[in-house]
From TrEMBL:
HAMAP family: Nth. GO terms for molecular function: 4 iron, 4 sulfur cluster binding; class I DNA-(apurinic or apyrimidinic site) endonuclease activity; DNA binding; G/T mismatch-specific thymine-DNA glycosylase activity; metal ion binding. Residues 44-192 form the HhH-GPD domain. Transmembrane segments: none annotated. It comes from the Archaea. Gene3D superfamilies: Helix-hairpin-Helix base-excision DNA repair enzymes (C-terminal) (1.10.1670.10), Hypothetical protein, domain 2 (1.10.340.30). It is an enzyme of class 4 (lyase). Keywords: 4Fe-4S, DNA damage, DNA repair, DNA-binding, Endonuclease, Glycosidase, Hydrolase, Iron, Iron-sulfur, Lyase, Metal-binding, Nuclease. This is Endonuclease III. Belongs to the Nth/MutY family. It comes from Natronosalvus hydrolyticus. DNA repair enzyme that has both DNA N-glycosylase activity and AP-lyase activity. The DNA N-glycosylase activity releases various damaged pyrimidines from DNA by cleaving the N-glycosidic bond, leaving an AP (apurinic/apyrimidinic) site. The AP-lyase activity cleaves the phosphodiester bond 3' to the AP site by a beta-elimination, leaving a 3'-terminal unsaturated sugar and a product with a terminal 5'-phosphate. InterPro entries: DNA_glycosylase, HhH-GPD_domain, HhH_base_excis_C, HhH_motif, Nth. It catalyses: 2'-deoxyribonucleotide-(2'-deoxyribose 5'-phosphate)-2'-deoxyribonucleotide-DNA = a 3'-end 2'-deoxyribonucleotide-(2,3-dehydro-2,3-deoxyribose 5'-phosphate)-DNA + a 5'-end 5'-phospho-2'-deoxyribonucleoside-DNA + H(+); Hydrolyzes mismatched double-stranded DNA and polynucleotides, releasing free thymine.
Length: 227
């Protein structure tokens, strides 16, 4: 079993330094050219791979270019355009509703505050944080997706299970200057090494400080289940 640093802030700093060295070009993988496209892409990415979303939005963004286009699109038409995306019917409803709100209440512009963003249908803190960070250059939180949830629990940075509570724990131990990049580092490491089903601890640059390391630990702290 890896031995984490006694102080969680020190543990977080060490994790960031090692992952930055391992993934020096880590960044968002969704493709978009404006704030609306970013919002739509992030909404579609829930429980769906970024690769699939990028494939789907290549044509979607050519067909629908404005909030009005999405808001006025018939439900069946938009759902059909998204039919390779998980939960495409619900996501079509959320997108149409969110875009109608953008048209009616925000002059057709994607809002730039957390409160306004999370009032849009289908938008929670995770999506809002991504839009703020990459659409408005506003960093006021940490995006907690499934990779961040899994890695931070495995590494002993949090014992919380809900994304909002995990975010609050992380905000207290991760330097503000790293809030945005931390998510991308976790995503890259989660995809390459520390996956949900088969963590490759033998190839992990964090194994020696990870209390979930499979060499000795019998428990995956991310799930609280045996390996």
């Amino acid at each position: 079993m890896g031995i984490p640093l006694e102080d969680r802030t020190a543990q977080a700093t060490e994790v960031i330094e090692r992952l930055e060295h391992e993934y020096p070009e880590s960044t968002i993988s969704l493709r978009y050219s404006n704030r609306l496209e970013l919002l739509i892409a992030v909404m579609l990415s829930a429980q769906c791979t970024d690769e699939r979303v990028n494939t789907e939005t290549e044509n979607l963004f050519e067909t629908y270019r404005t909030p009005e286009d999405y808001a006025n699109a018939p439900q069946e038409e938009l759902a059909e355009a998204l039919n390779s995306i998980t939960y495409y019917n619900n996501k079509a409803k959320y997108i149409r509703s969110a875009c109608q709100t953008i048209v009616d209440e925000h002059d057709g512009e994607v809002p730039d505050t957390m409160d306004e963003l999370i009032e849009l249908s289908g938008v929670g803190r995770k999506t809002a944080n991504v839009v703020l960070q990459h659409g408005h250059d506003i960093v006021e939180g940490i995006v907690v997706d499934t990779h961040v949830q899994r890695l931070t629990r495995r590494l002993g940075l949090t014992e919380e299970q809900h994304p909002d509570q995990i975010e609050q724990d992380l905000l207290s131990v991760i330097p503000e200057s790293a809030w945005q990049q931390f998510t991308h580092l976790c995503i890259d490491h989660g995809r390459a090494v520390c996956s949900a089903r088969s963590a490759d601890c033998g190839a992990c640059v964090l194994a020696d400080i990870c209390p979930s390391e499979k060499g000795d630990s019998e428990i995956d702290l991310a799930s609280s289940e045996p390996w």
